Amino acid sequence: MAVNKVFPDATAALADVLRDGMMVMSGGFGLCGIPSVLIEAIRASGVKDLTIVSNNAGIDDAGLGLLLQTRQVRKMISSYVGENATFAKQYLAGELEIEFNPQGTLAERIRAGGAGIPAFYTATGAGTQIAEGKETKVFDGRTYIMERGLRADLAIVHAWRADPEGNLVYRKTARNFNPIMATAAEMVVAEIEELVPAGTIDPDHIITPGIFVNRMVVLDHVEKRIEQRTVRKRA
């Protein structure tokens, strides 16, 4: 029996999901593959005291930077935040909590959460500030630190193509963090660029199976901003 998970817009898809104090995973990398329309809907909802799990915090006027502007974020769990002056200002003023993770550790914490693994050991960060307050063990003569898996109340992801049952395909580097986050939350809402009929997507091309996706919204326009434009000088 076919299932249609498409909602009319981002506001409707999130209407009965959002609440103060929840943990939200937000996919993408930099401004590539971020669920920007869903982020804007979260901003418009007014929910606050959010814990956001994301590789980075967007920039001042785009992506998760929009939620920082309105002070809806209490804590960030991230690996890189260097492009956001608003973030730096709030953090240095003691108004925003940050849990830094090495990038690979962050990805594995999310993947572990999606796989039902509560914790794992990694050598990354051993002997540094990253290890402070964490359990350590020695394996084969090398020190490892224990990291906890991550699960969220909500994951918002951006996909290139989907069918009505929620099977998702991501495009190139926009795939970053989206697939693992789609496995590691109680509720997964995806914004998609193109909706195709059921059976259209080659099963071998499906990256996130529809069983992980609860709701979707089809975008009528996609703005793809470039975070850092780098070009060669003209001859």
Outline the fold blueprint.
Layout: E1 6-7, H1 10-14, E2 23-26, H2 36-45, E3 50-53, H3 65-69, E4 73-78, H4 85-92, E5 97-100, H5 103-114, E6 119-122, E7 136-139, E8 142-148, E9 152-162, E10 168-169, H6 178-181, E11 185-195, E12 215-218
Parallel strand pairs: 1-12, 2-3, 2-9, 3-4, 4-5, 9-11, 11-12
Antiparallel strand pairs: 6-8, 7-8, 9-10
Description of the molecule:
The protein has 235 residues and is an alpha/beta fold. The protein has helices at residues 10-14, 36-45, 65-69, 85-92, 103-114, 178-181; strands at 6-7, 23-26, 50-53, 73-78, 97-100, 119-122, 136-139, 142-148, 152-162, 168-169, 185-195, 215-218. 39% of the residues are buried. The model has no long low-confidence stretch (mean pLDDT 93).
